[in-house]
Design brief:
Structural class: alpha+beta
Number of domains: 1
Strand content: over 45%
Distance between the termini: 22 Å
Oligomer: single chain
Helix content: 10-25%
Length: about 100
C-alpha cells in the first residue's frame, strides 16, 4: 500500500500522554467491476516507528514517508506492530 497522507497527533487523554501517527493509504483496485483506489487510515503508536526503524523520528522525517510503499504488520490485538518500507516513490528512485 502507498502512503498518501500522514497525520501526527500528540497530546494527553485522561492524564495519559499519547503520540500517534495516522497513515492514510491507497491500494489500487484489481477487478473488472471496480476502478481506482481504495483508501484506508491506519493508526500506529510513535513507538512502533522507533522499533521498526531503530531510531527516533522528527516530524519532518515522519512526513517524508508520504509516497512510500509500505507493509504493515499487526499484533494479536490487531494493532500495527511493525512497519516496513517496500519501495520509495519514483521521485526518490531518481535521486
Amino acid at each position: 500500500m502507498k502512503i498518501i497522507g500522514i497525520e501526527e497527533k500528540i497530546g494527553e487523554f485522561e492524564h495519559t500522554p499519547y503520540h500517534n501517527v495516522y497513515f492514510h493509504t491507497a491500494i489500487e483496485f484489481n477487478g473488472e467491476k471496480n476502478k481506482g483506489y481504495c483508501t484506508k487510515v491506519y493508526k500506529a503508536k510513535y513507538d512502533v516507528l522507533e522499533k521498526s526503524f531503530g531510531k527516533a523520528f522528527t516530524t519532518a522525517e515522519i512526513l517524508n514517508l508520504v509516497g512510500k510503499e509500505v507493509d504493515l504488520f499487526y499484533d494479536e490485538y490487531k494493532n500495527v506492530s511493525k512497519i516496513e518500507i517496500i519501495t520509495s516513490s519514483s521521485e526518490d528512485k531518481s535521486k
